[in-house]
């Protein structure tokens, strides 16, 4: 008591001093005060006297209320059970005393937070009572109703550590729907009502239903339906906010309450679509995407009563408005750095993406949604840094997937597709004078999004007349009109219309297999060729660009004609070389695709020579771009297709006409690179791409060491050594090592006889590199790509084991162990390689592992390597914030214990058993502290594979190791440790692995809650 009195006497002066500017001393004192056990009672006493009239008194009570709000989050741990009701009642009295109109807003809001936390911790939360002497003002009642959904399902906001309390709170929310909706949607005179709290409530109710599978799913919707008149009025007044309500309702689909849902959602969507202004359209994107992933496709196929036409019209309007807004933002910002046009472009791409979502949903069906993952609704919380906890303890939702015959017979799908294509034709045209590279790049991005949507739509309506009309109709009309107009009378509008018609036709043709195109739209290119050549710049560049894309869709019987047409109209014949960053790569992709259709038994020598000349056409430096090398590589692949089976002739031509000049260019590049901070290594990349071109096809590897391409590689081996061992690498691109390593991957797949040299070089390079991610990824790719036969499995396994050990030795050393923690991409590469090389054959099979199962035992026999792994994992796993790295580590240890060889008395079993204590200790620490491990997609599934595999293969050793690992986590209660061990032992009692995994996820969530509770 004396301590309380002493602190109560000092507190007002410290608060006054802090707000007067003494933030150092007074701030430290107040921080220590909040940690003191007496702080709760001191704050209660300071607030019990009611609102104070003077400024110092207001500041004091504000601080005390904030302190109570902070301390109340751990109410259950702070107050013994026998005093909790007394403390809770004291908070209720304070809230009544400080309620408006006399109390400060910040004080009563913090007291409402404290009272809500106390009620939730006691498992007794109920909505505030109306009527009587103690009735609170509506604003306070609304606060008390809003707070639980902000606090629940978020451990950082309120760390409830008992499942029973969460279930009690979920039940209380479901019981309170009528009262809550009444309070949230009605107001006193002049009071503003916002709809965001209602959206948050609906989100929380979905989560509550998934925690309580026995509750009536329709009850919350029925409660909301009783407020329909008031809700519709608010939606008309606030359509921007109403989109959040509709979004939450749309996410309810498939939960067994479609009739009630549609009755609620239909008028809401009608009102929302009618009253949303163009400026508010972006707020509809999350809703429209959610509708596209379920209810809209179902309505289109007659499985829902929602108005599919209205939704489709709105989806078209969203595309139109977002693209128009993007164009306007470009004109107003002139591509300045304000970011407005980038945000508008992102909205436009999202609008196109929802049409792809619709098509893929019709094709693949709906998936069960995770009610604890609300990507588009911003979860509010008293703690602004908190975010909702992800879970998967969900009730099984109704799955929907239409029959193929149903889709084929649906008349609504062609109608929707027709509206989409019409909009694309109107909106995705080039600007009137297409000389702006930034605008052209953005249009290309939007067209790429449209291309992706069309690919999915092709599987739905690709054989329908409306598809053929979209692919050919607009283009035929434009061709007739264009060719009928004399050259001097053709307008900018006609150029623009023709270009977008050609693009649309090419996009539709690309989305289908060539044999499905019927009358090939590509033939229009030959019809237009003379007219296109007469067009003036800048339109000639863009028309040729789109026409080349259309030509590339030609079937095999037309490919030679299209190749000739494209070869005579390369993208380098342009008014603006800087446009090559947009036009060059698609051109090269099209040529490579057409050359792939050439007869494989004929060498087209003249074409090959032209392609080589084209690949190495001289460009000015400002015309180079990020995809220059990729485009050259594709042209070189086209050369290989053109040469058919004449490999010797191809290699001779490259050796005589191409490689000498390339070597000279690379030599000059290497000399200049010594003085450059970020050398580009363009010529070196082309050199290795050229050497890869000379290789036999991947599907026909050869062990012939006298193969012409093998001679070519041996001649240029010093360049591979220099790229991987001596030349300075670019820190941003990893060149030239990346190009050399990728070329070696392709070489070993095609020429396995050179496996020894390639692995030795990569291992040597990895040992010298500070961050050998490129080299390790290449060794991994080589290991996964080897075919045995023609490779000798035993020999290949020995070579790979030697290379892996030599490459990883420096990385796994004690000196490097500390630094690798801060290199998550390298960490992921290390353990992805290890996971692959020790991967066993699936249970009940043999010979499926790498090198016909001969690589795994050779790695497991290297005890020093495995010992280093065992020493490194406890260092990196508990502190790893990278999901890919965590998953790779856990996949490695799961593969380690997953082979049949571990079940038998063998040296491998002894090695793995010796690692179990360290591995279990590291995993237990990570499960308790690493947030993403509470997510099945964040590495928990791989952790489960390890736990189950170790329990099955090494039951006694694993039981002891797991107990020891949990014992090191002293912050965990004995109950949760026993629960985890029992759950692993009881796997057989779960008919489905998914159910077992979801329960494991719940256990890990509780592990982490207990750990955070102790940490705070």
Descriptive overview:
The structure is a single chain. This protein is an all-alpha fold. It has 49 helices and no strands. Helix 13 packs across helix 14 and helix 35 (737-750) runs parallel beside helix 37. The protein starts with a helix and ends with a helix. The model is unreliable at 373-398 (pLDDT under 50).
Which structural category fits the helices and strands?
Answer: mainly alpha
Major sheet, described briefly? none
Strand segment tally? 0
Secondary structure tally, helices: 49
Strand residue percentage: under 5%
Unreliable stretches covering 5 or more consecutive residues: 373-398
Shape: globular
User: Could you tell me the radius of gyration in angstroms?
Assistant: 34 Å
Helix content: 55-70%
Mean pLDDT: 86
Distance between the termini: 26 Å
Top keywords for this entry?
single chain, 49 helices, 67% helix
Provide a brief overview of the structure:
With 1016 residues, the protein is an all-alpha fold. 67% of the residues lie in helices and 0% in strands.
Q: What's the SSE blueprint?
A:
Elements lengths: L1 H19 L4 H11 L3 H10 L6 H17 L3 H4 L2 H18 L6 H18 L15 H14 L11 H13 L1 H9 L10 H16 L7 H7 L2 H10 L1 H12 L7 H18 L9 H8 L2 H6 L7 H26 L6 H25 L39 H6 L2 H16 L9 H25 L3 H20 L7 H19 L12 H12 L4 H13 L7 H9 L12 H17 L8 H11 L12 H15 L4 H27 L8 H12 L14 H8 L1 H10 L10 H14 L4 H14 L4 H13 L7 H16 L5 H7 L3 H14 L12 H4 L1 H6 L2 H14 L6 H15 L9 H23 L10 H14 L1 H13 L6 H12 L7 H23 L1
Helix pairs in contact: 1-2, 1-3, 1-4, 3-4, 4-7, 6-7, 7-8, 9-11, 11-14, 12-15, 13-14, 13-15, 14-15, 14-16, 16-19, 18-19, 18-21, 19-22, 21-22, 21-23, 21-24, 23-24, 23-25, 24-26, 25-26, 26-28, 27-28, 28-30, 29-30, 30-32, 31-32, 32-35, 34-35, 34-36, 35-37, 36-37, 36-38, 37-38, 37-40, 39-43, ...
């Amino acid at each position: 008591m004396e301590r309380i009195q002493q602190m109560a006497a000092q507190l007002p002066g410290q608060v006054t001093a802090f707000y007067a500017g003494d933030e150092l001393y007074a701030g430290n004192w107040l921080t220590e005060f909040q940690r003191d056990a007496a702080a709760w009672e001191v704050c209660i006493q300071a607030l019990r006297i009611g609102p104070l009239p003077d400024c110092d008194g207001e500041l004091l009570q504000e601080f005390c209320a904030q302190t109570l709000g902070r301390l109340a989050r751990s109410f259950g741990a702070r107050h013994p059970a026998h005093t909790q009701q007394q403390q809770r009642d004291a908070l209720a009295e304070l809230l009544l005393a400080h309620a408006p109109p006399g109390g400060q807003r910040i004080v009563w809001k913090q007291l409402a937070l404290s009272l809500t936390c106390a009620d939730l911790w006691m498992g007794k939360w109920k909505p505030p009572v109306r009527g009587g002497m103690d009735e609170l003002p509506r604003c306070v009642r609304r606060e008390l109703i809003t707070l639980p959904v902000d606090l629940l399902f978020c451990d950082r906001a309120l760390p409830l550590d008992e499942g029973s309390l969460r279930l009690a709170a979920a039940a209380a929310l479901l019981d309170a729907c009528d009262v809550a909706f009444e309070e949230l949607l009605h107001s006193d005179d002049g009071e503003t009502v916002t709809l965001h709290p209602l959206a948050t409530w609906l989100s929380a109710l979905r989560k509550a239903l998934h925690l309580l599978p026995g509750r009536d799913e329709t009850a919350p919707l029925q409660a909301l339906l009783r407020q329909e008149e008031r809700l519709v009025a608010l939606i008309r007044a606030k359509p921007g906010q109403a989109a959040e309500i509709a979004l939450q309702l749309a996410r309810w689909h498939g939960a067994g309450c479609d009739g009630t849902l549609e009755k609620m959602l239909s008028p809401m969507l009608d009102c929302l679509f009618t009253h949303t202004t163009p400026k508010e359209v972006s707020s509809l994107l999350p809703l429209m995407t959610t509708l596209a992933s379920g209810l809209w496709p179902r309505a289109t196929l007659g499985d829902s009563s929602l108005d599919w036409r209205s939704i489709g019209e709105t989806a078209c309007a969203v595309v139109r408005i977002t693209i128009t807004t993007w164009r306007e933002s470009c004109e107003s910002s002139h591509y300045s750095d304000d970011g407005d046009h980038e945000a508008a472009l992102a909205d436009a791409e999202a609008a196109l993406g929802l049409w792809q979502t619709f098509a893929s949903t019709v094709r693949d069906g709906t998936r069960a949604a995770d009610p604890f993952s609300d990507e588009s609704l911003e979860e509010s919380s008293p703690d602004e840094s908190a975010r909702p906890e992800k879970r998967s303890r969900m009730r099984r939702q109704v799955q929907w997937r239409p029959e193929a015959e149903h889709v084929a017979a649906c008349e609504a799908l062609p109608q929707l597709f027709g509206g989409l294509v019409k909009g694309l034709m109107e909106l995705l045209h080039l600007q009137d004078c297409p000389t702006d590279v930034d605008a052209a790049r953005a249009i290309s991005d939007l067209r790429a999004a449209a291309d992706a949507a069309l690919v999915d739509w092709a599987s739905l309506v690709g054989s329908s007349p409306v598809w053929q009309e979209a692919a050919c109709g607009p283009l035929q009309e434009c061709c007739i009109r264009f060719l009928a107009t004399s050259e001097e009378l053709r307008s900018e509008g006609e150029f623009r219309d023709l270009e977008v018609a050609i693009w649309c036709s090419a996009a539709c043709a690309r989305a289908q297999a060539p044999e499905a195109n019927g009358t090939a739209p590509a033939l229009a290119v030959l019809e237009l060729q003379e007219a296109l050549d007469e067009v003036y710049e800048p339109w000639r560049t863009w028309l040729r660009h789109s026409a080349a894309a259309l030509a590339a869709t030609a079937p095999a019987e037309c490919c030679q004609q299209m190749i000739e047409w494209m070869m005579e109209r390369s993208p380098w014949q342009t008014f603006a070389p800087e446009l090559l960053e947009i036009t060059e790569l698609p051109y090269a992709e099209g040529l490579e695709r057409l050359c792939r259709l050439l007869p494989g038994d004929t060498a087209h020598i003249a074409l090959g020579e032209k392609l080589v000349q084209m690949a190495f056409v001289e460009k000015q430096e400002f015309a180079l771009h990020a995809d220059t090398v990729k485009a050259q590589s594709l042209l070189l692949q086209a050369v290989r297709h053109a040469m058919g089976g004449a490999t010797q002739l191809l290699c001779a031509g490259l050796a005589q006409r191409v490689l000498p000049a390339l070597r000279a260019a690379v030599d000059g590049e290497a000399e200049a690179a010594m003085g450059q901070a970020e050398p580009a290594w363009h010529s070196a990349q082309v050199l290795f791409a050229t050497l890869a071109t000379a290789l036999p096809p991947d599907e026909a590897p050869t062990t012939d060491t006298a193969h012409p391409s093998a001679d070519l590689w041996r001649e240029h081996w010093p360049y591979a050594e220099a790229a991987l061992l001596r030349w300075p690498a670019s820190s941003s691109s990893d060149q030239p090592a990346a190009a050399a390593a990728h070329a070696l991957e392709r070489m070993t797949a095609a020429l396995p006889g050179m496996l020894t040299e390639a692995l030795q070089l990569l291992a040597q390079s990895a040992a010298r590199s500070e961050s050998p991610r490129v080299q390790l990824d290449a060794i991994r790719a080589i290991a996964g790509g080897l075919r045995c036969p023609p490779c000798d499995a035993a020999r290949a396994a020995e070579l790979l084991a030697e290379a892996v050990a030599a490459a990883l030795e420096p990385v796994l050393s004690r000196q490097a162990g500390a630094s690798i923690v801060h290199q998550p991409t390298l960490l992921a590469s290390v353990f992805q390689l290890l996971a692959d090389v020790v991967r066993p054959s699936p249970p009940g099979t043999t010979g499926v592992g790498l090198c016909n199962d001969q690589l795994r035992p050779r790695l497991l026999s290297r005890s020093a390597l495995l010992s280093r792994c065992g020493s490194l994992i406890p260092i990196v796993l508990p502190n790893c914030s990278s999901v890919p790295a965590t998953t790779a580590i856990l996949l490695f240890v799961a593969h380690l214990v997953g082979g049949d060889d571990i079940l038998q008395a063998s040296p491998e079993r002894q090695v793995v058993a010796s690692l179990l204590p360290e591995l279990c200790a590291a995993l237990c620490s990570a499960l308790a502290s690493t947030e993403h491990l509470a997510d099945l997609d964040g590495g928990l599934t791989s952790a489960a594979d390890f736990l189950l595999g170790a329990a099955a293969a090494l039951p006694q050793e694993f039981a002891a190791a797991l107990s020891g690992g949990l014992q090191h986590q002293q912050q965990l209660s004995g109950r949760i440790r026993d629960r985890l061990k029992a759950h692993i032992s009881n796997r057989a009692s779960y008919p489905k692995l998914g159910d077992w995994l979801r329960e494991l996820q719940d256990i890990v969530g509780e592990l982490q809650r207990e750990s955070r509770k102790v940490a705070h």
